[in-house]
Amino acid sequence: MGALTDIMTIAKWEVKKSFTMMSRDVLPIAIALFILLVIVTGYTAQTGLHLQDGMYRVGVDDPQIASLISGDARFTVYQLDAPTLEANRNAFDVIVVRGNATGLGTDKANSALQTLSRDYGKYVNSVYNTETDLFAAYPLWIDTEGVKSELSFLATQSGQYVSAAPGRVAPVPSGPVVQIPTPSPTLPISEDDLRAQLVQSNAQNSQISRYTSALTTTTTMGNFKTPAELSPPLPFDSIILVFVFIFPLYFTSQFFMMSIMNERIERKGEILLSTPVKASSVILGKMLPYFIGMLAICAGLTLYLKAPPEIMLPLIPVIFFFLANALLIGMLSRSFKELSFISIFFSTVATSYLFFPSIFANVHVISLISPLTLIVLSIQGTAWTATDYLYSTSLFWLTGAVLFFIAARNFKEERLFSEKPLMTRAREFLSEILPESHPFLALSLVSGFSIPFVFMVQMMCLVLFFNLPLPYSLIFLLLFAALIEEFAKGVGIYTLFSRDPGFFTWKNLVLASAATAIGFLVAEKLLLFVTLAQISDSVFGSILFLSLGSLWLPLLLHFAGVLIVACSLKLGGKKWFVPGLLIAMTVHCIYNLYILGWL
Amino acid sequence: MKSKHLSIIAKKEFRGLLSERTILLAVLLQLFIALFSSFLMVGLTSMYDPSSLSKYSHYRYSVAYAGNDSGVLTYLRSSPDFRVYTMDLSTAVTALGQRKLAAVIYVPDTGPAGSDPVKITLYTLENDLQSAIVDVKLKDIFLKYEGDLRQIRAARLDVTPVPLQVPSSGGGGFYEFVYGLLIPLLVFMPAIIASALVIDLITEEYQHETLETLVSTPISFAEMVWGKVLACEILVPIQAGAWLILLSLNHIAIQNLAMILLQVTVTSLILILLGALVALHYRERTAAQFVYSTGLVVVILFALAIPSNPLNLLARLAVGTAGPEQWLVLGVTAIIVVLLGYLTHWYAERVSEHRHTG
Q: Considering only CB atoms, which chain B residues are within 8 Å of A180?
C-alpha cells in the first residue's frame, strides 16, 4: 500500500509541474497552432499537394488534347505545330502528334507516358459516364468473389508459390466437390446506381483518396467493378494508421523523456532521490500521467474514427514499450542534442518496425509481428485470436519490462548525474544489473533477458530481407542472425571484462561462457515455444531458430560462440571484441549451413 | 558582429557534437534508411502504384474457365502468363480452395452485341499476395475484351472521347515515387534536423545556466545566437550532400546537384531561424520543441499547398525541368530569410538588453 500512495503522490507532482511549466504562455499558442493546423489541412486538401508539379514536359499539336493534359499539374504542356515538335524532339519528354503519344525512351519519359495513360483513362471514363446507353460504354462488369483457402498460411510463408506447377490436364480437387450455384448473368444493381458509382470513383483524386477513404468504407455497390477498377487488395490504410495512432504516442513520450532529463539537469532531481521513496515508485509515478494521457489520446482517436474498441488492446504494449524507451533515453543522454538524436533514431527504427510489416496485413503471416497489424485487421472486421495477440505483442511487453528493470536499478545519483560518454554509460547501466556476488547467475540472466531484443532485431531483419530475391534474402538473414546472437551473448562478458579484467581466469572464462550459453538457450526455447511457433515453421524460421531440434548441439554452438569472444577479449583486450564477434559469427554461420544440409 | 566571434561559437558547438559522437546516430540513420530502400522499392512503390507489383512475378498461373465461350478464353489461351483449363464451375472453385488453381472465371451466355452488360464472375483466394498479382494480370485481359465489346457496341454511343494512343511504356511508377517524393523529402530532412538542433543548443545554455559565463566574454549575446545558427546551417549541405551521394550510389541519377544544395541550404535557414526564435522566446526545451514542431507541420503543409514551393522545386531540379522560375523561388526564400534574420537579431539584442538592465 505504501508504494501505491508514493506512486500517486509522485504522479500528482508530475502533473502539477508540467502544467505550471506549460501554461506560462505555451497553452494559448498551442491552441492557436492547432486551429491553424486544422485550417491549413483543409486548405491543402482543397488545393492538393503541389509536390510533383511540372515534372514532365509535353509537346502537343492539338488544342483539345493540350487542355486535357494540362489538367494534371505534373505536366508542363507546350502547344506547337507538328513540324516544330518533330524538329525539337529532344526538348520534350513526350510529344503528341496527330493523336499519337511518343516518349523519348528515358525512364522519365516512360513514367510520363504512364501518368499520361492514367490521365487519359480518367478522361475517357468521364466521357463514358454520361453516355445514355451505359452498357455500350461499359459492356463488361466483373463480380469478384473471394474464396477462403482451406490450407493454412504455412505454404505461403516460405515465400514460395503455392499452386502446383501447371500440368497438361486440369487439376482435380481432392475430396468431395462443393456445389457452387451458377452466377446470375444479370447485374442486381440498377443502371443509375452503377453510373453514380462510376462518377464517384472517377472523381476521387486517386493519390490521396486511396488513403483517406480506407477508414470510411462506403462501398455501396458490393463487388461489381469495371475491368479498370480491378486492383490488388493491399491495405493502404496502414499509412494513415501509423500517422494517426503512433505520432501522438511518440509526441507524448517526448514529454516524458524531457521530464526525466529535466530532473537530471543541474541536479534538480536530487530532492526526489533523497526522499525515502523507492526508485521504482518514482519511475512509475512519473510515468503514470503520461501512460494515462496516451491511453486517453488513443481512446479519443478510436471514438473519433468510430473504430472497434478492441484496437486499444494492441496499443497498450506499444505505449508501454515507447515509455520504457523514453525513460531509458532520458536517463542515458547527456545533453539536449544527444536526446534529440537518440530519440529521432529510436522513433524512426520503432516506426519502421511497427509500420512495414503491417503493409502486408492481408497477405502474409509475417505481418503479425507488428501490433499495428491487429489494428488493421480489427478495422477491416477480420477477427484475431488470443494467440495472435500474444504472438504480436509479447516482444513489446518483454522488452519494455526489461528496459524498465534496467532503468529502475540505475535510477540513483551516481548514474543520473554522471557525465561520461554514451557507450560507457550504457555499459555502466548494464553493469548495474550484474551483481558482483553472483557473476555467473547474472550472466545467465542477462543473456536470457537479451532474447526478446534479439528476436526483435531478427524480426526486423526478416522484414527487411523478406523482399530480396530468395537466395540473397536467406544469405543476409543467415549472416545477420548469427551476428546479432553473438553480439547479444558477448555483451554481458564484455561488460564484466571492462569492469574487472582480472576476474577472467581461464576457469572463470569457461564458466562464464557456459553460464551465458545456458541462459541464452533456455530463454530462447521458452520464448519460441510460447509465441513464435508460426514463424519457425517456415524456411526463414529454420534459419533464425535452428535450435528447435536437439538440445546439445545448439548449446555447444552457443558455448563455442561466447568462448571465442571471451578468449579474444582475454588475449587481445577490449579492442579485440569486434574481431572476436566476427569469428564467432563465421563459426555460427558454418554450423547453420551444416544443419540445413547446404554444406 | 565579428566573424571571429561567430566562428568561435560555431567551433565550440561542433566540438561538442563531435565529442558526444551522437552525430554518428544521424549518419547511422541515413544508412538505415538507405538499407531500407530495397524495402521501399517493393513495399512502398507497390503502395504508391499497385500495378507495379506484376513486374515482380514471372510465373505461369493456372486458371479455370467455366461457362460459355468468349473472347476472354481466346485471350487467356494466347497469354504467356496463364495456363487455362475449361472446367465445371463447382469443381474449379473447390480446386481453387485447395490452392490447385490461382483463379476461376465464369462467363455467362450474354451476347456481345446485346443490350445487357456481360457480367463475368471472378473467383480468387482471399488474403493472398498471389491473388493480388493474378488480379493485375487478369485486368489486362479483361481490358482487352472490354475494348472489343465497346467496338461492337460503338454505334450506340452518343459521344466518343478524343482519340489518343498512348504506348504502354512498361514501367515508370518507381520514377515518380523516387523523384517526386523520396528525393525532396530526404534532401529536406537535414534542414528539419538542423532546426531541432538549434533549439537544443540555445535552450541548453539557458537550462544549464552556462549563459552567464558566455556573456561575460567579449562575445555578445546576438553573436552567440548567430554562431549557433551558423553551426547548424553548415550541417545542412553536408548531410544533404551525403544523401545525394547515397542516392547516386543506388543508381539514381540526379541533375543540378549544386542548385539543389543551394536551394536546401537557403530554405533550411528559414527553419533554423524560426527554431532559434522559438527557443529564444521559451528558453526551455520541452515547450520550445513542442511549439516548434507543431508550427513546423503547419508551415510545411501550407508550403506544399502553394504551387512552385521549395520542395516542388527540389523535385523539378532533380529531374531537370526547373525553368527560370527557380531563381524567383530562391529570391523569395532569400527575402524571407533576411526578414527572419533581422527579426532574430533584433529579438536577441532585446533579450540581452533585458539581461543587462534586469
A: 89-90, 93
